């Protein structure tokens, strides 16, 4: 069977299609004309939400850009502070809608023009949440009729909507062609569970509450479906900072922790006190992002933030920043897709309030890293599982 695609990775690659050996393809196009990248994002993100639902038994969502997640989350309550920080109303949301609200909030700047995946049938609550967002498409196991009509209206009727058969499992061996040569490997079907996190805690601090364990599961499954090297920082069942596709682990850690810091600081009292001019939500998002990065901005960037605000700028000081991030201690989890080779990763994580680290272990310097975790009073779990993805 064949699904024709708009074009390959770029418009100058006109031949693009999906082929499936079998009578019934598990994937169907409900609306729009998907591109090659849409399909890559859709298939990768579907696997992530499928794994998250299997591990937590909760509705799951992911926001993908260029074959890695900008954010991922499972369903949960949205606090008033969260809603204000991420420009959501106080309207009641279905579980799958809360999962996407969390996933989209992880890095709203990166999620601009995202490809969405959800583990549940798309309902009206979720469709109305997606309706005003700039998004390229969605993959889901199905669509309620009214939700289908709401989303079909996006992008002048060209919003890409894919449907995936929930019961489909891929073959044991997968293949891909690279430069005319076929590579094969066993499909990575390893399951990440609570036992993965709790089975080998090697630090003096061994306190893992249910929230931390679930968040660690979410962060670690997120890595399974993220371009390596990768680090994921999570809180409350959500990946709030993903550092993907870097050549060094410390670069991944810095990116993930910097994103996590910005996410957390958007709920700082000074950030919540901001008022905005009557401008589009995307401009408010950019202005808030600039506010929490104030000391990194040049004068023109600061002027743009001021121009979007309907109030004076009272930046978060370095001391206020450190105090606020430290107050999140116990809620923040960091997971790595392979072993952590040097303690510099732990030192950077500590500045973001991380108190649980999950990593594969197996480095010659494991003890140095464990010692660093003990110095920072972190708990550390060694899973023995590497999760590289390329």
Descriptive notes:
- The structure is a single chain.
- The protein is α/β, with parallel strands linked by helices.
- It has 3 domains: 2-169, AICAR transformylase, duplication domain (Cytidine Deaminase, domain 2); 174-265 and 323-382, Cytidine Deaminase, domain 2, CATH 3.40.140; 269-315.
- Helices cover 36% and strands 21% of the residues.
- The protein is globular.
- It starts with a strand and ends in an 8-residue tail after the last strand.
- The relative contact order is 0.11.
Question: Percent of residues in helical segments?
Answer: 25-40%
As residue ranges, the low-confidence spans are: none
What would you say the CATH architecture of the largest domain is? 3-Layer(aba) Sandwich
* Rounded radius of gyration (Å): 21 Å
CATH class (first level) name of the largest domain: Alpha Beta
- Count of spatially separate domains: 3
CATH superfamily of the largest domain: AICAR transformylase, duplication domain
- Averaging pLDDT over every residue, what do you get? 95
Shape: globular
Number of helical regions? 14
User: Beta-strand percentage?
Assistant: 15-25%
What separation lies between the terminal Cα atoms? 26 Å
Q: List the strand order in the largest sheet.
A: 3-8-7-6-4-5-12-11-13-14-15
**SSE order in H/E notation?**
EEEHEEHHEHEHEEEHHEEHHHHHEHEHE
Could you name the CATH topology of the largest domain? Cytidine Deaminase, domain 2
Tell me the number of strands. 15
Brief summary of the model shown:
The chain has about 400 residues and is α/β, with parallel strands linked by helices. The chain has 14 helices and 15 strands. It has 3 domains: about 170 residues, AICAR transformylase, duplication domain (Cytidine Deaminase, domain 2, 3-Layer(aba) Sandwich), CATH 3.40.140.20; about 150 residues, AICAR transformylase, duplication domain (Cytidine Deaminase, domain 2, 3-Layer(aba) Sandwich); about 45 residues.
């Amino acid at each position: 069977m064949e699904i024709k695609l708009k074009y390959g990775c770029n418009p100058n690659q006109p031949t693009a299609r999906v082929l499936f050996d079998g009578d019934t393809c598990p994937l169907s196009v409900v609306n729009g004309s998907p591109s090659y990248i849409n399909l890559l994002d859709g298939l990768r993100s579907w696997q992530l939400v499928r794994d998250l639902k299997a591990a937590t038994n909760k509705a799951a969502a992911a926001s993908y850009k260029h074959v890695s997640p900008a954010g991922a989350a499972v369903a949960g309550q949205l606090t008033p502070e969260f809603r204000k920080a991420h420009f959501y109303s106080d309207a009641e949301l279905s579980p799958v809608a809360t999962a996407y609200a969390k996933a989209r909030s992880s890095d709203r700047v990166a999620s601009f023009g995202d490809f969405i995946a959800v583990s549940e049938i798309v309902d009206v609550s979720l469709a109305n949440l997606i309706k005003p967002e700039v998004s390229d498409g969605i993959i889901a196991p199905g669509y309620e009729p009214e939700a289908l009509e709401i989303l079909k209206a996006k992008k002048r009727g060209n919003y890409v909507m894919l449907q995936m058969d929930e019961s489909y499992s891929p073959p044991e061996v997968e293949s891909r062609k690279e430069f005319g040569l076929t590579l094969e490997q066993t499909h990575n079907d390893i399951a990440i569970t609570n036992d993965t996190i709790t089975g080998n805690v090697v630090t003096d601090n061994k306190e893992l509450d249910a929230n931390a364990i679930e968040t660690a599961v979410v962060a670690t499954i997120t890595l399974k479906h993220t371009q390596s090297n990768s680090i994921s920082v999570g809180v409350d069942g959500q990946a709030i900072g993903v550092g993907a596709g870097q050549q060094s682990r410390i670069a991944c850690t810095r990116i993930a922790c910097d994103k996590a810091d910005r996410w957390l600081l958007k709920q700082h009292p000074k950030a919540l006190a901001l008022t905005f001019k009557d401008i589009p939500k995307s401009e408010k998002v950019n202005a808030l992002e600039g506010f929490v990065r104030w000391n990194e901005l040049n004068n023109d960037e600061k002027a743009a933030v001021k121009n979007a605000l309907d109030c004076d700028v009272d930046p978060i000081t370095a001391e206020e920043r450190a105090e606020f991030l430290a107050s999140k201690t116990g809620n923040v989890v960091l997971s790595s897709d392979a072993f952590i080779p040097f303690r510099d990763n732990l030192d950077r994580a500590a500045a973001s309030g991380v108190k649980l680290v999950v990593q594969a272990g197996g480095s010659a310097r494991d003890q140095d890293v464990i010692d660093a975790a003990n110095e920072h009073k972190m708990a550390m779990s060694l899973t023995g599982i590497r999760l590289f993805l390329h």
